[in-house]
Amino acid sequence: MSNSKTAVVVLAAGLGTRMKSGLPKVLHPLAGRSMIAHLVDTVSELQPERMVVVVGEDMAAVQAAVAPHPTVVQSPRLGTGHAVMAARPLLEGFAGTVLVVYGDTPLITAMTLERMLAVRRHAPHPSVVVLGFRPADPGAYGRLMVDAEGGLEAIVEAKDAAAEQLALGLCNSGVMAVDGANLFRLLDRVGNDNAKGEYYLTDIVALARSEGLPCGYVEGDVSELVGVNSRADLAAAEAILQDRLRAVAMAEGATLIDPRTVYFSWDTVLGQDVTVGPSVMFGPGVKVGDRVEILGFCHIEGATIAHGARIGPFARLRPGAAVATDAHIGNFVEIKNASIEMGAKVNHLSYIGDARIGAGANVGAGTITCNYDGFFKSHTDVGAGAFIGSNTCLVAPVRIGDGAIVGASSAIAKDVPADALAVTRGPHLVRDGWAKRFRDRRGAEKLAATSSAPGKKTGSGKG
Ligand code: UD1
Ligand code: MG
């Protein structure tokens, strides 16, 4: 039996023409990161000794996405067997198990791959272990031919299969664990005399059997093995992944009031006793502490929320938002690159960007930090315990001292000292009876004008 080391070959040279996209297929995102990144992360859990990603021509973006793992370019594309051959120079001298996975099958779990490796390790030590599955519609998948002893005899591609072979429900997922000591010798014997005129990786099973080498298979769950070939498949894969992320969030102690409407990023971290309301969307880079309440319809990305804070409903936290313990962010509030310190409140209709709101400060409804002059971004600093009246513009750069009060509807462009009052409203003018006198005079003028114009109706009031 060969050694227990593992090398991984990821096949990602396909164009993904059915995606109808300028982006290589494997770079399309699921839960906020590319399919290929999901897959590379999953296989990394196995701690393989080597990993090689096979890409096509002009796929520098895929090469960058998988770096520092090495890539080889397969050109032209002559089939899955040919693609594995392209990785040969990077697997020189490797005698453990070579695991082949497909870039467009990103939902596979490390546990399933471990099950395949375990079968390789045990008698009769199959040379090839294939991951089979039973999709509702076997369609174009290759079919697994199993012998009376439960060994794998061959894989027959749908296009090359006879009717009775097509009737078999056990299909090839594409994932294979192959004895590295035999892999390239077997691939050297693969020809392209088949319906597609391609070098099929799947042919190595029958070739191994013809040499007397045992082959086997394990069955995997359909939800891990959906292949993404179209935008509809991408949406189906997203749905499966979101269900997994929701299940994990709940298992770890978060309440999701309506799980089906909460969308997570692959890296969302929720503390214990977090409650998430309906229709909340997490983008990448969000960390939420314990006992945080996120009310419905919030959009949160690149933000940290400390324990006890309350967010929403209808709040938007953008990258760099840091909401401290017990702070409150209310409805129609947008926070970007700003720290909202302990117990501070920004409860209604505000934009706070490039700012610090000190501990316990209260920011009134409709407050705007004017952080951008069309050229540069500037910082706003609001001290601890300050009170910002409603409808205030804080024209950055500007500092409001600790405990200062800003009167409602002010435009503050100069620093305000601690404990001072600043207010920029115009003088408060009151003229008794003015409005009534105005209405009486203008009403009489309009009546005179319309009654002297022939043919015109009066009093419609509509302009
Ligand atoms: C393949 C299997 C089929 C299996 C199915 C599962 C073969 C011959 N057939 O068929 O048994 O049921 O996957 O989805 O292997 N690729 C390259 N270079 C190539 C060709 C393909 O890198 O020259 C990559 C693709 O990017 C993709 C993967 O290999 O990630 C599979 O290729 P694809 O053409 O989709 O194979 P299928 O016809 O679906
Ligand atoms: Mg395919």
Q: Short description, anyone?
A:
The chain has 463 residues and is α/β, with parallel strands linked by helices.
Number of domains: 2
CATH superfamily of the largest domain: Spore Coat Polysaccharide Biosynthesis Protein SpsA, Chain A
Radius of gyration: 33 Å
Number of strands: 35
Architecture (CATH level 2) name of the largest domain = Alpha-Beta Complex
User: Which percent bin holds the helix content?
Assistant: 10-25%
Which ligands occur here?
Answer: uridine-diphosphate-N-acetylglucosamine, magnesium ion
Low-confidence stretches: none
Alpha-carbon distance between the termini?
Answer: 93 Å
Number of helices: 10
Global morphology: elongated
Mean pLDDT: 95
Strand residue content: 25-35%
Q: Could you give a short account of the major beta sheet?
A: 11 strands, parallel
Question: What would the CATH topology of the largest domain be?
Answer: Spore Coat Polysaccharide Biosynthesis Protein SpsA, Chain A
The assigned structural class equals alpha/beta
